[in-house]
Amino acid sequence: MIRSLNWKNAIFAGIIGTIFFDLFSLISPRDMWDIPEILGEWSGLGFVFGVLWHYCNGVLFAIVYSLLVPFLWGPHWFRAISYTTVITILFFWLLFLPLMGYGIAGQNESDSLAVISLLRHWVYGLALILVINRDFTLPGK
Question: Domain limits at 29?
């Protein structure tokens, strides 16, 4: 089933999901909003650039999800959670963290980094469920 992309909802979901991600980061046991700072420092372009990069990533992943959701398996909530799990493993645990020197799944940084990062991304996935999935109906329903 091919459907047209609802750009407004995809962008909105990406921004809201990233806000959810950030709020969860601030109240999580490690109490840290570290991604923008890390991105800004790594790029050499500063904190503001890190914030923009972080939110652009959130929007990009929501756009990709919006395109893929008709082809994913399971109920709406499962599609978003499985998508964010795959994104976390492929892009965060296996690409971003090793590039930053933290090792695969952050093994060189802390024992809890992998779990906390997965929880953060699941919280981001709530916006995908609430915003993007409301536009999409399962075949036969």
Answer: 7-135
Count the Cβ atoms, other than its own, within 10 Å of residue 63: 19
The answer to whether the predicted template modeling score (pTM) of the entire model surpasses 0.90 is no
> What are the angstrom distances between the C-alpha of 70 and each of 4, 65, 79, 81, 112?
11, 9, 9, 15, 33
- What percentage of the chain exceeds 90 in pLDDT? 53
Question: Distance (Å, rounded) from C-alpha 31 to C-alpha 129?
Answer: 25
Specify the number of domains making up the chain: 1
